[in-house]
Amino acid sequence: MSDASYDSRPLTGEYEAQFGDYFALLKPRVMSLVVFTALVGLLVAPVAVHPMVGFSAILFIAIGAGASGALNMWWDADIDQVMKRTAKRPVPAGKVAASEALAIGLTLSVMSVVMLWLATNLLAACLLAFTIFFYAVIYTMWLKRWTPQNIVIGGAAGAFPPLIGWVAATGSVSLEAVLMFGLIFMWTPPHFWALALFMKSDYHEADVPMLTVTHGRKTTRTHILVYTVLLVPVALGLALTSIAGPLYLAVAAFLNLVFLRGAWQIWKRDEAVAEADGYAVEKKVFRFSLIYLFAHFGVLMIEGVAFRFGLWGPLGGL
């Protein structure tokens, strides 16, 4: 449970929070991924959206993501202070009081959901509300500190944005939207477990039950390989829908082969060798996983525009 003492923890010296400190509460790097995937979901939908409606939808989805980040920092202030990777975040660093983070998170949550409803439709707003609740409550307050499967189940929160973007445009859910959700959902475990392999001490010191802490690195390596294998048919399955074509199929086939090779290399790695070379392979696979996801959605966006202008058509159309 989050340490309540953070609500009254004094800021360092006479420091006054700056705009950048409040912006950092929103986790802008995570928000960039949310904005990008939501935009792709909106653009590849088979319904043309007015530019102002589209801009408003992405803006409010981004604000909702930022609200989730602020709520996460409020609750996780105690463990963020322990972990090197998160110690400089605004709340543990004493730049923003936890009570402020809570107030900002709640305010932005309500505002983003209501405004998305007014700008698009009720279903999109409900999905955004559920996403915020899932990340802030189900993942942050429960799963993260309770089970080594926290990343697997919690990954759903990061997988909703393209689905919300699609629903904002169409008002309904379809196979294409579900597969975009599935792509991010299945990608999340190997992506974060690769990070956990070379950041294990952080999670151990913060008493977070990451798989590397509860089951060890060898088991984590096996899980990375298994989830990467399961990811491949989801990624390639998108090529058979109405939103993907030959370019996506070619790029996805290449990216998945590379990712599979990386997961195989991680699985074969001896721990002593990995530690001796500073987990070079694990870091390389982690960095590639970021390229992997952005490339898949980038190609979907390119082909979506091409389809709209009649330059070429999809392979499927299910």
Q: What attributes characterize this protein structure?
A:
flat, 318 residues, mainly alpha, 2 domains, 0% strand, 14 helices, disordered N terminus, Tetracycline Repressor, domain 2
What do these coordinates show?
The chain is mostly helical and 318 residues long. The chain has helices spanning 19-25, 28-44, 51-75, 77-82, 98-119, 122-146, 150-170, 175-198, 200-205, 211-214, 216-237, 246-268, 271-276, 280-308. It is flat and about 55 Å long.
Give the SSE map:
Elements lengths: L18 H7 L2 H17 L6 H25 L1 H6 L15 H22 L2 H25 L3 H21 L4 H24 L1 H6 L5 H4 L1 H22 L8 H23 L2 H6 L3 H29 L10
Distance between the termini: 46 Å
Number of helices: 14
Largest sheet, in brief, is: none
What is the C-level CATH assignment of the largest domain? Mainly Alpha
- CATH structural architecture of the largest domain: Orthogonal Bundle
- The total tally of domains equals 2
Taken in chain order, the helices and strands follow as: HHHHHHHHHHHHHH
Question: Which structural class fits the helix and strand makeup?
Answer: mainly alpha
- Find the CATH superfamily of the largest domain: UbiA prenyltransferase
The low-confidence runs, each spanning 5 or more residues with pLDDT under 50, are 1-12
Question: Using DSSP, what is the number of strands?
Answer: 0
Helix content: over 70%
According to CATH, the fold-level topology of the largest domain is: Tetracycline Repressor, domain 2
How much is the average pLDDT?
Answer: 89
Q: Please tell me how large the radius of gyration is.
A: 20 Å
Quaternary organisation: single chain
